Amino acid sequence: MTSATVVGAGPNGLAAAITLAANGVEVTVLEANDTIGGGARSSEGLVPGLLHDHCSAIHPMAVGSAFLRALDLDRYGLRWMLPEIDCVHPLDDGTAGVLYRSIELTAAGLGPDAPRWRSLFEGPARNFDALARDIMRPLLHLPRHPITLTRFGIPTLLPASATARIFNSAQARALFGGVAAHAFRPLHYPLTSAIGLGIITAGHRHGWAVAQGGSQQISNALAHKLSDLGGVIETGTRIGSVTQLPPADITVFDLAPSTVADIMGDRLPGRISRAFRQFRRGPGAFKIDFAIEGGVPWTNPLAHLAGTVHLAGTYAELAATEREVHAGRMPDRPFVLVGQQYLADPPRSVGSIHPVWSYAHVPHGFAGDATKAIIGQIERFAPGFRDRIIAKRSHTTNEIFSENANFVGGDIMTGAKDVRQLVFGPRTTLSPYRLGVRGMYLCSAATPPGPGAHGMCGVNAATVALQDLGIKTTAI
């Protein structure tokens, strides 16, 4: 029987394992930590019963993932929950850009920019499920829906700064810019529109969902599915050298490229080893978990209903902030993302005490303390916030890396999403998953289509592995 070892039990590693097991492969997953999930984990930490997501928290790309939907994960306890409003981007004058799942509601709040918003998103959102069959694969491939992909793809090549200029209002520009800034790139760089257009389009189709009971439930459901297929997961098993790997026909790494290079050593072809060791990392995240009495006292009333709130002021301020972070300088007012997952999933709270998830974009490997800056940004748009803090815990870039070895320097994107790495992955090749060693593959978020709990990096890598062995893949 064909055998496989998957190193790393994040969503991509688990997705690779499921894809292999569903096609008759005997699979063992080795996870270094004591708990599975990678970035998709949750736990209680500040107040007993108060549930916090470790990293991945809001899932517009995962809720619509064709792979996850095909697994029927509700059988294993996964439930998707939607807030009333997906995202709010408040401004200092008390107004805000407001993103609903509904394009009509979103456009209605953008005044004269309504026709532009509808023009940009109506077609792609309507065709998103077909579109996703292409955009969730390596960008350089024979498309299954070429016309749909072309119509969507041409605007994604633009810098976010160019797309933002389509809109006249400060609210629409800030709303789009805040989502585009999820790329952790200066917004005047090419292809930065891709992240904003992709996430907003996915949200207009499926919403910015959270997993009931925390993001850990995504990982747990995947693990249960794998177990039903005969796969085995071993936690607390760290692989530091290729000599520690059990014999297998297929080995798949859900790890950062540099870590794979360290493990493989001389077994990795020189050109690939050099590319993996020169893999460019992106800026970092500095995260704070809060326990808040009565919720955040936002000035803008619609922010009280939003699963996500982006704090950066105007588009111009946001763009300047992202340039500073990319240059290695910590801004006084960083871009802060606030998650209010409890609005869609109330049992995460304990009485009137609510878990609030937040992080700021900071320079790669930032060694300072961004706690004051993050609280200051929240206080800016929610006066009185400090007085409602019951407890808090800060996570530095180094602590984020310690909790997840893929997040070097606090880089939760698993690599800079510049043009080359966004298109090709960690090396310039049409086969980003192969390691140049027979039977060995890479499936982490360093490979296309990139970060998120959608699992498609793992599915793509496992599919290539099966094809290399001449195993005809079957639908899950």
TrEMBL record:
Annotated source species: Mycolicibacterium sarraceniae
Superkingdom, taxonomy of origin: Bacteria
Stored PANTHER family: DEHYDROGENASE-RELATED, PHYTOENE DEHYDROGENASE
Protein name as annotated: Putative dehydrogenase
Record-linked SUPFAM superfamilies: FAD/NAD(P)-binding domain
